[in-house]
Amino acid sequence: MKRFWYFFREAFTSLRTHQASTLIGIITTAFTLTSFGIFLLLYHNVHNIIGRVQHNIEIVVYPKEGIASQKLQTLQEAIQADPAIDSVTVISKKDALKDFNHQFPDEAYLLEGLGESPFPASLVLNMAEKIPSTDIISNLVNRLQHNPDIERVRYNRDWIERLTLVITYMELGSLIVGGILALASITIIANTVQLAFYTRQEEIEILRLIGATSLFISIPYIIEGAIIGALGGGLALSFLRGGFELFKHKTQGLSIIGGFSSVFDFFPLPLSVLLIAGGVLLGCFGTLTTMYGWMRFRL
Amino acid sequence: MIQLFHVTKYYDGCLALSDISLRIDKGECVLLTGPSGAGKTTLLKLIFGFESPDDGQILVQNRNIARLRRGDVPYHRRTMGFVLQDFKLLPHRTVFENVGLPLIIRGLSFFESRRKVTEALRAVGMEHKQTTVASVLSAGEQQRACIARSIVISPIILLADEPTGNLDPQLTTEIADLFKAINARGTTIMMATHNQQVVERLNGRILHLECGHLLSDQGAYA
Predict the structure, then answer these.
(1) Which of A24, A238, B50, B84 has a Cα at 20 to 30 A from B167?
(2) What value of ipTM does the predicted structure carry?
């Protein structure tokens, strides 16, 4: 317990006594995480927009003419059970006629006298937000086409293929850019910690002189790194939030998809916490790499 | 207590110690003398586990230091005290905090630590400076605090590398007397020194080193 208290007291005393290096550490972490956060924010929003677009993918299924209502319901339930499907809407022959009349009121006279609705009944399938890929949709369509109760399946294959390709490239690009930024962040923070660390070699020498183990010496530094990382992460989050609000305010007048403010949103709470946790991890990892490099060559 | 068998040490190909063999018994006061570069500090560092010998064996309390695993070195150091010429105190900490540090490392309770620190500070005449920050102490006070930190753990062996190197003759005598008192309580002392005044005052066994060779091993100073 005394040691535990000592570790935290040492970490906080060190932060207080080495104010300049602490400040440099916090600012470096904040700027590094801000650049990473800008990228993450862009990715998060583009991903959201694509998710919404994916949700709008529609597959229209035309059941066999004269299918019994019992069979139609079974078919609807079977389709609805597929995890790739978000919702299934049944459009009866009457509904199809109503829709036509509603959409083209001037042409309604063309269908007068035909008696029953000439339009076939259909099932409109909306895809789940994160599911669609060309393969999944092709498999689904293939299964539907082989169903004896289905006459025809209509969907925009080219458009889905293009969208899938864009998503694949975007995710691959995100992975590469995110990886590079994370690596750069670790390097920058490790160097900052290293600089602070060299100024305290005397302290470490003293601790070694009185029989402290490497772990005992390291723990306060790791706590210190974690605190710097958390403060840097918090500061980065404030920068991002401020920047985001400013961006939203400046683009409020623009009328693209009803204004940017309606399209973009800030990180949800879990992602915000993750950014701070990322700062803590970077701080700890930066300290550990420096400590390990320094300790392994000394008895 | 301490035994060296044909110990040799090189630094970047330069000979620092050559074929040193000796035995130091419990409660002895050993003074390492010789010019700068003779190998006095190297010998102390080897015994303390700061360096490893290139050849030979070192036994400290029947433990072979040359074969000590890296992780065991700190535990070996905890059995000894080491006083250096340049004090090595944490400048922003109080005397109490500096002296109590080895006890925190050992995980002692607050009350036991407090008792031991007070005892150690009383032994070096620094009880009244407990709350003073180390950086404002005089050289003599810093060295006393450093000695208190070394004896707070009741070490079996106390190593000292030129502990009076930065002190005036008056303080040198005081520090030498302090070491003498510690030795009188049964602690084995091994001290590297240039100072004739200290040699005379401590009146111990003298090991004279030159260019890494042990030239003489005399008993108490006449």
Answers:
(1) B50
(2) 0.84
Q: Cβ of A211 under 8 Å from any chain B Cβ?
A: yes
Q: How far is A296 from chain B (nearest CA, A)?
A: 9
A81 touches chain B (CB under 8 A): no
Q: Which two tokens stand for residue B148?
A: 């208190």
Q: End-to-end CA distance of chain B, in Å?
A: 25
Contact yes or no for A211 and B51 at CB 8 A = no
Residue A127 contacts residue A86 (beta carbons within 8 Å): yes
Closest CA–CA distance from residue A203 to any residue of chain B (Å): 6
Which residues on A lie below 8 Å from B89 (Cβ)?
A: 206
Helices (DSSP H) in B57-109: which residue ranges? 73-77, 95-105
- Among residues B54, B48, B42, B41, the alpha carbon closest in space to that of B8 is found at B54
- Phi first, then psi: what are they for B53, rounded to 5°? -75, 150
Query: Cα–Cα distance between A26 and A229 in angstroms, integer?
Result: 7
Distance CA B148, CA A71 (A): 93
Tell me the CA distances in angstroms from A238 to A30, A187, B96, one per residue in order.
9, 23, 42
Query: What does each of the 299 residues of chain A score in pLDDT, given as a tens digit?
Result: 667 788 888 888 878 877 887 888 888 888 888 888 888 888 888 777 777 776 677 788 888 887 787 888 888 888 888 887 888 888 887 888 888 888 887 777 777 766 677 788 888 888 776 655 667 777 888 888 888 888 888 877 677 777 778 777 877 887 788 788 777 777 776 776 677 667 777 888 888 888 898 888 888 888 888 898 899 999 999 999 999 888 888 777 665 555 555 667 888 888 888 888 988 888 888 778 777 766 654 54
Q: Tell me how far apart the alpha carbons of residues A272 and B150 are, in angstroms, rounded to a whole number.
A: 49
Q: Which residues contact A153 (CB under 8 A, 6 or more apart)?
A: A59, A60, A61, A62, A141, A144, A145
Q: What are phi and psi of A72, to 5 degrees?
A: -65, -40
Q: Is the pTM of this model over 0.80?
A: no
